[in-house]
Amino acid sequence: QAFFCLLFCIPRGSSCPPSCQCTERAGAKAVLCSSRHLEEIPKDIPRDVVFLKLDANSITRIPSNAFRHLSHLEEIDLSRNAIEKIDRAAFKGVAAGLRTLDLSSNRIRSIPKEALLALNAKLRLANNPWHCECALQEVLWEARLDPDSVQDITCHTAPREEYVGKPLLQVLDAGVNFCSVRQRTMDVAMFVTMFGWFAMVIVYVICYVRHNREDACKRGDYLKSLPSTQAHAE
């Protein structure tokens, strides 16, 4: 009976990943997986976890629904990993309750704005090789960034060489608007496309008129070459 009680009476989701340490912090469950050589987010994290530390590992990607079953989650530390890709729905299911998300010191160049703008959490995005673009600008203006780390969001690459190596906030304060640059590029592309179609229509009309004119001339020459009815009567 004791064996079956242990087997069936333990609440689901209360186990601890073998590579991590589970403890209590201020009456809330904390899962500590720091410096465990992890290459992906563990699958067996307890459902009642509140604080999750996954820092200093080798995680390269945050897939969709990575934390969806962790409805009590308030803090995630993913700093000092090798993260390069974050899916649009990476934080789906925890957006409402999450208070802190640390993505600093990774290898993130770009991120879908949908993945972060739905969060109410305070974000740390410093020390990543960012490509300065419209999506990152929108995250900077609309997301809840940690004010102490905003200056460390630096342009590793950018549309213009003069922005490289500068803090994104400094570039934007100088009047640069990456979103308007993208809009202008789209407008130019649309203009070129419309001009191309217009030119094709003009060429088609010219060819059509010229072809009809040539047919009319040939028909006229043919009619002139025919014997007249008066000549037949004589």
UniProtKB/TrEMBL annotation:
The chain crosses the membrane at residues 188-209. Residues 15-51 form the LRRNT domain. Coiled coil: none annotated. GO terms for cellular component: plasma membrane. Keywords: Leucine-rich repeat, Membrane, Repeat, Signal, Transmembrane, Transmembrane helix. It comes from the Eukaryota. Residues 1-15 form the signal peptide. SMART domains: LRR_TYP, LRRNT. PANTHER family: ANTIGEN BSP, PUTATIVE-RELATED (PTHR24369), LEUCINE-RICH REPEAT-CONTAINING PROTEIN 3 (PTHR24369:SF170). Belongs to the LRRC3 family. This is Leucine-rich repeat-containing protein 3.
